[in-house]
């Protein structure tokens, strides 16, 4: 029986160490909400996206590329994703800055396709 006490203590120590490592490896706190009712995760008082976001990829579900930002216009952003879509600013969030900046969204592809399409102004024919 005495031979198993040090073995049990070592096993308990390894399990505790693994628990600490797991706690540090995974994000803390609740997961962000999902579903159509949680599209707007930013507050309306946030500043417009900076011009440096033009050309950035919009990411969904952590690593799914949704499209590319082609223009920023105040409270709306134009995203190229199988067409040009007008995305409200409060549907997007930014993490990081500079070269580490990522633009994310909680939208799905279906949510994005349901948004209005952007139609660029057409030049009028002059005579």
Q: List segments where confidence is low: pLDDT < 50 over at least 5 consecutive residues.
A: 23-31, 33-45
Overall geometry: elongated
**SS elements, strand count:** 6
Order of helices and strands: HEEEEEEH
CATH topology of one domain: SH3 type barrels
Percentage beta strand: 25-35%
Distance between the termini: 102 Å
How many helices in DSSP terms?
2
Radius of gyration: 23 Å
Structural description of this entry:
The chain is α+β, with helices and mostly antiparallel strands. It has a domain of about 80 residues: SH3 type barrels. Helices cover about 20% and strands about 25% of the residues. It has a six-stranded mixed sheet with strand order 4-3-2-1-6-5. A hairpin with a 3-residue loop joins strand 3 and strand 4. The longest helix is centred in the first third of the chain and has 22 residues. It is elongated and about 95 Å long. About 15% of the residues have low confidence.
């Amino acid at each position: 029986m005495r031979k198993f006490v040090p073995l049990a203590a070592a096993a308990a120590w390894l399990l505790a160490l693994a628990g600490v490592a797991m706690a540090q490896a995974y994000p803390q706190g609740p997961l962000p909400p999902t579903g159509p009712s949680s599209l707007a995760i930013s507050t309306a008082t946030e500043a417009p996206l900076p011009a440096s976001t033009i050309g950035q990829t919009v990411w969904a579900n952590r690593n799914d590329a949704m499209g590319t930002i082609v223009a920023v216009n105040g409270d709306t952003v134009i995203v190229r994703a199988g067409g040009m879509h007008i995305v409200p600013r409060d549907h997007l969030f930014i993490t990081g800055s500079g070269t580490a900046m990522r633009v994310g969204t909680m939208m799905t592809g279906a949510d994005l396709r349901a948004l209005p399409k952007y139609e660029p102004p057409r030049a009028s024919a002059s005579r």
